From TrEMBL:
CDD domains associated with the record: REC
Domain Response regulatory: 23-136
Regions that span the bilayer: none
BP-aspect Gene Ontology terms: phosphorelay signal transduction system
Domain of life, source organism: Bacteria
SUPFAM superfamilies reported in the protein's UniProt record: CheY-like
Keyword terms, alphabetized: Phosphoprotein
Listed name of the protein: KDP operon transcriptional regulatory protein KdpE
Organism: Pseudooctadecabacter jejudonensis
Residue list for modification 4-aspartylphosphate: D72
Gene that produces this protein: kdpE
Matching InterPro entries: Bact_response_regulator, CheY-like_superfamily, Sig_transdc_resp-reg_receiver
Amino acid sequence: MDSLDDFMQTRPPTANRPLLGLTVLVVEDSRFASEALRLLCLRSGARIRRADSLFSAQRHLAVYRPSVVIIDIGLPDGSGVDLIRDLTAARPRVDVVLGTSGDPEGEALARKAGADGFLDKPISNIGFFQSKILEHLPAERQPKGLRVLSDDTVIPDEVALRDDLAAAAVALEDPTDARTLRYLTQFLGGIARSAGDTPLAQETQTLAQLQTDGSAVGSQVARIAAMVQDRIARTAAL
């Protein structure tokens, strides 16, 4: 056995670590959201693997079959909806496929594609996270005996948030086409909701509406770019 992590995965699930023995593949482009999920898996006993794009996810899935896949709807190289549809149609099937998004329309899209459930961003409550996975697992994978739902929450590292903001700031300098701008809008909206940043979330919603209406977006992009730079400066000071 190569590591403590490998050893832990051979143990049966317990009341305190109900996801022991499970491998969770997180398909998520945000480092901040991924860090929250990493902490949730760690506290729950699950092993985590991360892919930041559809391409990376397919490479992971070609090598092993995880127990659970959590898929963000908005990814840099396409929609997570397509991956949800592929995984839920495949045989043998992954035990649990969950969608996740900060977009209000994300849950409907994920469920229509066949997702077993949905995690609305921000994701921080340990008991809620565990329940969303356990309710779809077969009985033999469930922990034995009574289990008290934890009301604890996780707090992702601010460094991961700064990395996300820095990546967005570079892209906002020259959004090359409408598709790129739509992706950036969704990405920033997810970051804002995960970080509890209501002003930034509202401004990204405004930008999304302008794109839907076919209106000019230049001044709104500039406004959001300035807000992102302000938040980078704040996190750098921490």
